[in-house]
Amino acid sequence: MRLVRPVVFSAVVALLGGVLGGAAAQGATDQTISYHGYQVTVPASWPVVDLAKDPTACVRFDRPAVYLGRSTAQDCPARIVGRSEGLVLEPLTRAAKSSDGELQVAVQDAGVLATAYYVPGADQTARKVLSTGRVASKSQAARVAPQAVAAAPTIVATGTIAAPGFDKCTAPSQSEMDAWLFPASPYRAVGIYTSGSLRGCQQPNLTADWVATNAAKGWQFLLIDVGMQAPCTTYNSRMSSVPATALTQGRNAAINAVAAAQALGFAQRSAIYSDIEYYVSTAACKASVLSYLSGWTQELNSRGYVGGAYVNASSGGADLASVYASTAYTRPDNIWFAHYNTTPGSSRFIPDTYWPNHQRVHQHTGDVKETHGGVEMAIDRNALNLTAPPAPVTGFDATGAAGSAALKWTIPAGTKLGQVIVRRNTGATPPALPTLGTAVYAGVGSAVTATGLANATSYSFRTWVKDNYGKVGPGADTFLAGTNVTIAASPASIMYTGSVTLSSRATRVDNATNLSGVPVTLYSKAKNASKWSTVTTVTSSSTGVATSVQKPTVSTYYMWGYNGSGDLLGSRSAPTLVEVRPALSAYLVPAAIRLGAAASLYGYLNPAHAGSTAYLQRRSGTSWVAVTTGKLTTNGKYAFSLKPTARGTYTYRVVWLADADHQGTQTASKVLTVS
What we know:
Elements: E1 2-6, E2 30-35, E3 38-43, E4 48-50, E5 66-68, E6 86-91, E7 102-107, E8 112-117, H1 123-131, E9 134-135, E10 164-167, H2 174-179, E11 189-195, H3 208-216, E12 220-225, H4 243-263, E13 271-276, H5 283-302, E14 306-312, H6 313-322, E15 334-338, E16 359-372, E17 375-386, E18 394-400, E19 404-410, E20 417-426, E21 438-443, E22 447-451, E23 459-467, E24 476-480, E25 483-485, E26 488-490, E27 493-495, E28 500-508, E29 519-526, E30 533-539, E31 545-550, E32 556-562, E33 571-572, E34 576-581, E35 583-584, E36 587-589, E37 592-593, E38 599-606, E39 613-620, E40 623-631, E41 637-642, E42 648-656, E43 665-666, E44 670-674
């Protein structure tokens, strides 16, 4: 029931998500609507439509009105695009769910679901209307079942189809769909308005259950998003005249469209068509539309969906065709063009060689009434020639190594394969599109080794299947976390026959956690060598630490390495040099002589470097000066005869210079006294 009466002032309690406001003043141009004990104030100019008395009335969001009740038998025109301001009051049988252009409130005490529809960007108007609502009398509300956890989307719109389809402003009732089920009608597909702020009709029938039921009966679907229109039109929601902004708006529209499609059960590989109505094209307007559709297509593709455009053939169709081969814009995957009274599938504005690979829908007849199975509906007629893109690979996996990763995948059976594309990004986000990131592979195989991967860096890989029509399916992803391996040597220089402790810590670079219980390998190469050799492999501790004690005989570079796994990329530490210096002994006999006598300074180098040079030096003030040299014998011995020509104290040492294998060394100072 409803009650309509003019009011001048009314004290109300706001009912929008709780109490939003208090008393509000109404003027003589207002009216109060009462439905099931819920009262709300709206402009007096809004007509009131009682769906209980007129169940076939179309709930049109392009006109200001108040609609009372709920009807699934609405008789709407085939196409309505636009948005005004109005209100729908119906029994509360489902949870409130607001969307762009629609603000819903569940009034539990009255058992009423209130939907205020509004011009995009004018949500405050809708809030103002709902803020006037109050419960005048409580009623027993129908129990609203808790919202079930949505199942994973499984329906692809569309699959392979070359048959007629129809579209309708509001999704038909189940009885209408059943009456028109092929072969009762020639139609195999139905166009439904799934999202967009300029949807002109209410969608009381369009639910996930409705989609699943009709898919099971063999219906296919064309998904339509009615969002922003060209900036050169008069629609109350228009894209920006700045192309870069329009591109972002297209991306945002695609994000919302995917969410709405998934809520209805439509999976990846589904095509969603952005409805761009007729416009008088100019250079600026064209640039905005093409940019908007570029952003739309890019975002849909990045989420595994097909980017479609519904256009008037003479405006949007002609503009898209004019840049078909341009790289300045991203071309929609599918085109749905309206061109009436022409041969189905063709238009003089869009060459047949464009979108030729089962990528076309032609709306060739508009807003006609047909009767099938005893049921009449107003529809647009369409000719469809479509295939879905290929399914993604399965089992996409990566096994890390040092500087490389082994990738493998399984191509779905029955795929008409063109090629598999693999690309990568550093970090946790894979390339969104097959044109982004770094190329890894393009071919028909099922495995590849990705090389040239940087140390201590994480990588995300995405692979796509392109079929023999050139259609690219959703991406499949895998991630390899980078690892980091450190090295420390203590001490960094040792005497021959001495030992050095080499330690390391292995960690993940994405979360800095320690790699415990993993094999960490120590590598070495002599200072003058070019090839690394494996020394030992150690299992890391709970803190990711690995240690090894080594006794190198020559100066040696060491490096720790982790060689990767199914989840982790391998890495190498920086090389560190451990210098080995020979042991050089010195003996002075005797340590004191008389003037004119001689003393002997001798010793040994270990390891022996036979034939190399030993340098005798004497201290002069604060410096050391060369005295003479001598060659080492086969056992590394040197010997010098000391015979100073004046009395005094003399300090000597012997120096051996570094070679390719060992660090240089010197003896301790020896003091000779001459009296």
